[in-house]
Amino acid sequence: xxxxxxxxxxxxxxxxxxxxxxxxxxxxxxxxxxxxxxxxxxxxxxxxxxxxxxxxxxxxxxxxxxxxxxxxxxxxxxxxxxxxxxxxxxxxxxxxxxxxxxxxxxxxxxxxxxxxxxxxxxxxxxxxx
Length: 129
Known about the structure:
Elements: E1 5-12, E2 19-29, E3 34-41, E4 50-52, E5 57-60, E6 67-69, E7 75-78, E8 84-89, H1 91-106, H2 116-122
Antiparallel strand pairs: 1-2, 1-8, 2-3, 3-6, 3-7, 4-6, 5-8
Protein backbone atom coordinates (compact mmCIF):
# COMPACT_ATOMS: atom_id res chain seq x y z
CA UNK A 1 0.00 0.00 0.00
CA UNK A 2 1.51 3.29 -1.11
CA UNK A 3 1.14 6.21 -3.47
CA UNK A 4 -1.81 5.85 -5.88
CA UNK A 5 -3.66 3.34 -3.67
CA UNK A 6 -7.28 4.05 -2.80
CA UNK A 7 -8.11 3.09 0.77
CA UNK A 8 -10.96 3.32 3.25
CA UNK A 9 -10.08 5.47 6.25
CA UNK A 10 -11.69 7.71 8.90
CA UNK A 11 -11.02 11.03 7.13
CA UNK A 12 -10.89 14.13 9.38
CA UNK A 13 -13.27 17.04 8.83
CA UNK A 14 -11.49 20.32 8.07
CA UNK A 15 -12.34 21.69 11.52
CA UNK A 16 -11.01 18.48 13.16
CA UNK A 17 -14.31 18.07 15.04
CA UNK A 18 -14.84 14.50 13.83
CA UNK A 19 -14.03 11.98 11.12
CA UNK A 20 -16.06 10.23 8.46
CA UNK A 21 -15.26 6.84 7.00
CA UNK A 22 -14.65 7.42 3.31
CA UNK A 23 -12.43 6.38 0.45
CA UNK A 24 -9.24 8.39 0.04
CA UNK A 25 -6.31 8.47 -2.35
CA UNK A 26 -2.78 8.12 -0.99
CA UNK A 27 -0.75 10.86 -2.67
CA UNK A 28 2.45 10.38 -0.61
CA UNK A 29 3.96 8.78 2.46
CA UNK A 30 5.27 11.41 4.87
CA UNK A 31 7.25 8.97 7.03
CA UNK A 32 7.13 5.36 8.13
CA UNK A 33 3.82 5.76 9.98
CA UNK A 34 1.93 8.50 8.13
CA UNK A 35 0.28 8.80 4.73
CA UNK A 36 -0.91 11.93 2.95
CA UNK A 37 -4.41 11.65 1.49
CA UNK A 38 -7.04 13.35 -0.65
CA UNK A 39 -10.67 12.43 0.06
CA UNK A 40 -12.95 10.85 -2.53
CA UNK A 41 -16.64 11.77 -2.67
CA UNK A 42 -19.65 10.68 -4.68
CA UNK A 43 -21.01 14.26 -4.81
CA UNK A 44 -20.05 16.23 -7.95
CA UNK A 45 -19.82 19.98 -8.40
CA UNK A 46 -16.85 20.87 -6.20
CA UNK A 47 -13.95 23.07 -7.19
CA UNK A 48 -10.90 21.17 -8.51
CA UNK A 49 -12.71 17.81 -8.48
CA UNK A 50 -11.20 15.04 -10.60
CA UNK A 51 -13.62 12.46 -11.93
CA UNK A 52 -12.78 8.87 -10.94
CA UNK A 53 -14.28 5.96 -12.86
CA UNK A 54 -13.78 2.18 -12.81
CA UNK A 55 -11.39 2.30 -15.80
CA UNK A 56 -9.04 4.60 -13.81
CA UNK A 57 -8.09 1.64 -11.57
CA UNK A 58 -5.26 -0.82 -12.27
CA UNK A 59 -7.10 -3.12 -9.87
CA UNK A 60 -10.05 -2.78 -7.52
CA UNK A 61 -12.91 -0.30 -7.78
CA UNK A 62 -15.27 1.81 -5.70
CA UNK A 63 -18.86 0.80 -4.94
CA UNK A 64 -20.16 3.92 -6.73
CA UNK A 65 -19.01 5.27 -10.06
CA UNK A 66 -18.25 7.92 -10.92
CA UNK A 67 -16.73 9.45 -7.81
CA UNK A 68 -14.58 12.54 -7.44
CA UNK A 69 -11.11 13.05 -5.97
CA UNK A 70 -10.78 16.34 -4.04
CA UNK A 71 -7.13 17.41 -4.52
CA UNK A 72 -7.73 20.73 -2.76
CA UNK A 73 -8.29 18.87 0.52
CA UNK A 74 -5.26 17.11 1.99
CA UNK A 75 -4.84 15.32 5.32
CA UNK A 76 -2.12 13.32 7.02
CA UNK A 77 -3.31 10.13 8.71
CA UNK A 78 -1.53 7.40 10.64
CA UNK A 79 -1.30 4.16 8.65
CA UNK A 80 -2.86 2.28 11.56
CA UNK A 81 -6.17 4.05 10.75
CA UNK A 82 -6.47 2.39 7.32
CA UNK A 83 -9.56 0.18 7.32
CA UNK A 84 -8.95 -1.56 4.00
CA UNK A 85 -7.23 -1.28 0.65
CA UNK A 86 -9.76 -0.67 -2.15
CA UNK A 87 -7.51 -0.59 -5.21
CA UNK A 88 -4.73 1.15 -7.10
CA UNK A 89 -5.07 3.93 -9.68
CA UNK A 90 -3.41 4.02 -13.07
CA UNK A 91 -0.38 6.29 -13.42
CA UNK A 92 -2.26 8.75 -15.65
CA UNK A 93 -4.86 9.43 -12.95
CA UNK A 94 -2.40 9.90 -10.05
CA UNK A 95 -0.31 12.19 -12.30
CA UNK A 96 -3.45 14.27 -12.98
CA UNK A 97 -4.09 14.56 -9.23
CA UNK A 98 -0.49 15.60 -8.47
CA UNK A 99 -0.52 18.14 -11.34
CA UNK A 100 -3.74 19.66 -9.95
CA UNK A 101 -2.24 19.89 -6.44
CA UNK A 102 0.80 21.68 -7.89
CA UNK A 103 -1.52 24.05 -9.79
CA UNK A 104 -3.39 24.83 -6.56
CA UNK A 105 -0.16 25.46 -4.63
CA UNK A 106 1.22 27.75 -7.33
CA UNK A 107 -1.83 30.04 -7.29
CA UNK A 108 -0.93 33.39 -5.78
CA UNK A 109 -2.48 34.02 -2.40
CA UNK A 110 -5.11 36.72 -2.32
CA UNK A 111 -4.23 39.67 -0.09
CA UNK A 112 -5.87 39.37 3.27
CA UNK A 113 -6.79 41.89 5.90
CA UNK A 114 -4.55 41.81 8.93
CA UNK A 115 -6.30 41.24 12.25
CA UNK A 116 -6.18 44.18 14.70
CA UNK A 117 -3.70 42.39 16.98
CA UNK A 118 -1.18 42.13 14.14
CA UNK A 119 -1.61 45.80 13.22
CA UNK A 120 -0.99 46.82 16.84
CA UNK A 121 2.07 44.58 17.06
CA UNK A 122 3.47 46.11 13.87
CA UNK A 123 3.06 49.59 15.42
CA UNK A 124 5.02 48.37 18.44
CA UNK A 125 2.06 48.44 20.80
CA UNK A 126 0.85 45.72 23.09
CA UNK A 127 -2.40 44.41 21.50
CA UNK A 128 -3.79 43.48 24.93
CA UNK A 129 -3.59 46.97 26.39
